[in-house]
Design brief:
By secondary structure, this protein is mainly α. It folds into two domains: 149 residues, no CATH class; 330 residues, Neurolysin, domain 3, CATH 1.10.1370.30. Helix content is 62%, strand content 3%. It has 21 helices and three strands. A three-stranded mixed beta sheet has the order 1-3-2. Helix 1 packs antiparallel against helix 2. The longest helix is centred in the N-terminal third of the chain and has 33 residues. It is globular and about 70 Å long. Bound molecules: zinc ion (ZN). The site of zinc ion (ZN) has 4 residues, from helix 11 and helix 12.
Length: 516
């Protein structure tokens, strides 16, 4: 290989590093805005974030980038396909081509429109007034149609929106997976609804903030949170972010009347750990991030639900919870375990249990395709929403604040995002089956408060690769197949079958997923 070829690769990598650093600058600015910044800083911050995004975009679409990508062709031919350098070149080529297809003007308008829509949505939700938000939603959708038309032929227009969040995923594939998921969930939820509801009243009460922080600290430290590399701060809508592989920021929102934040913190830990265990060889390149939102969510759901709502975890931590909150002194572990796993259809997606949550997602996935197609009048959207919630969950929506206006995603222009939440649930259980095969004594370890083996398995098999492989390829490498909802359905049937003492084939006591 010639000196000029390696020289071109070095120049390409240096440019990629600048793009990556700008992305991380934006993440820190965003983290600051949502945890520290006084409200009046919003206007200044919008300008700063806009500038950083524009400079990064200019670097990505520049002619110099095109030239470097051409020049490294010969160098690339000599590389192992799985090498860091080959993966980086493939990744940059795809990003560059995609970014070049969309006019800079449209991108800027999309960002500006979302910034204008978010405060309007916030007020509309507070006042239960869909009509004031409707023109902004109309605008965001029109821009997505224009965006899709820039990106050329595909099986379905919605593919391009999905691709933003789950690279390579096709609408038809998600539809098939969700149909199968729905087929399994609907009868399971119907059967549970005929059972005596579980009493979850032990989860409400007086839980002082310092004590919540105390139990949270013990859990996080057992999971692998260290002061050297992690922070946890308060926010309104919890999220995880990072400045680098060695600087992870998670957030939480403590409420004195319930313990929800403990589970939400375990969730954000899962996101943080993914970013923290990426190979240091990838640091400073755009590959030093999780590969997709779906795979990311598989990690957060794993720590929140498969670990944090499991019996083995609580066999270790429940005595500590009782010590920190004496109100649990008279609550048996079994009763607590049932309470944290109770199934109860909710109007609100983020308050939903493990089973009904997915119906919220499927509803949004179906609606988004209809919204993108643009058939129908947006004025009818609240009514359509309410009818679907009744059909899917059997509950009435009292107002738009708890209905169609509950999520910020559409205001932020994130159409195509929701599906990744359920894809994450599904993938978490596919990985879990593999993990339980390879680490058969996982329950014993959790009961001892040991989570190192799980952490290392995830680091070795998923995290270290960063964005080297697209999500479908990563999944194929780890589980030897594509996305499959059956392990997730088997997990729910086993766990909920035991909790609700469901008869027939819902109970499968030998399931590898069921903790003894
Ligand atoms: Zn998440």
């Amino acid at each position: 290989m010639s000196a000029s070829q390696t020289g071109s690769f070095r120049a390409l990598k240096a440019r990629a590093a600048e793009i990556h650093h700008l992305t991380k600058v934006a993440w820190v600015l965003n983290w600051d805005q949502r945890t520290m910044m006084p409200a009046a800083g919003a206007t200044g911050r919008a300008g700063q974030l806009g500038t950083v995004a524009r400079v990064a975009h200019d670097l990505l679409v520049a002619d110099e980038m095109a030239r470097l990508l051409d020049d490294v062709g010969a160098y690339e031919d000599g590389l192992d396909l799985d090498s860091d350098d080959a993966c980086l070149i493939r990744f940059l080529r795809r990003e560059h081509e995609k970014a070049r297809s969309v006019p800079a003007q449209l991108r800027a308008e999309m960002i500006a429109a979302a910034a204008r829509a978010l405060p309007v949505w916030d007020r509309a939700r507070a006042e239960s007034d869909f009509e004031s938000f409707r023109p902004y939603l109309e605008r965001n959708l029109a821009q997505r149609r224009e965006y899709v038309s820039c990106l050329g032929e595909t099986d379905e227009p919605y593919d391009h929106l999905l691709d933003e969040f789950e690279p390579g995923m096709k609408t038809a594939e998600v539809r098939a997976v969700f149909d199968e998921l729905k087929e399994g969930l609907v009868p399971l939820i119907a059967e549970i609804s005929e059972r005596e509801p579980i009493d979850s009243s032990c989860l409400s009460g007086d839980f002082p903030l310092e004590r919540q922080q105390e139990i949270e600290r013990r859990v996080l430290e057992a999971f692998g949170f260290t002061r050297e590399s992690w922070r946890i701060d308060e926010t309104t809508h919890p999220f995880a972010s990072s400045s680098s592989i060695s600087d992870i920021r998670i957030t939480t929102r403590h409420q004195p009347g319930d313990l929800h934040s403990l589970f939400s913190t375990m969730h954000e830990f899962g996101h943080g750990l993914y970013e923290h265990q990426i190979s240091l060889d990838l640091e400073g390149t755009p590959l030093a991030r999780g590969t997709s939102l779906g795979i990311h969510e598989s990690q957060s759901r794993m720590w929140e639900n498969l670990v944090g709502r499991g019996l083995a975890f609580w066999r270790h931590f429940y005595p500590q919870l009782q010590e920190v909150f004496p109100s649990f002194a008279d609550v048996e572990l079994d009763e607590f375990y049932r309470a944290i796993n109770a199934v109860r259809p909710s109007l609100i997606r983020i308050d939903s249990d493990e089973a009904t949550y997915n119906l919220h997602i499927i509803l949004r996935f179906e609606l988004e395709q209809e919204l993108l197609a643009g058939d129908g009048d947006l004025r009818d959207l609240p009514e359509i929403w309410d009818a679907r919630i009744r059909e899917y969950l059997g509950i009435d929506v009292p107002d738009v604040a708890d209905g169609v206006l509950q999520d910020m995603h559409w205001a932020a222009g994130h159409v195509g995002y929701f599906a990744t939440y359920s894809l994450g649930n599904i993938v978490s259980c596919q990985l879990w089956e593999r993990i339980r095969d390879e680490l058969p004594d996982l329950d014993d370890q959790f009961e001892q408060g040991e989570f190192g083996a799980l952490r290392e398995w995830l680091g070795e098999n998923i995290h270290r690769h960063g964005r080297k492989f697209p999500p479908a390829e990563l999944l194929e490498r780890v589980v030897g197949g594509g996305i499959d909802p059956q392990p997730y359905l088997a997990y729910l049937r086993a766990k909920l079958g035991e909790i609700y003492q469901l008869g027939g084939n819902h109970v499968s006591p030998k399931s590898p997923l069921l903790e003894s």
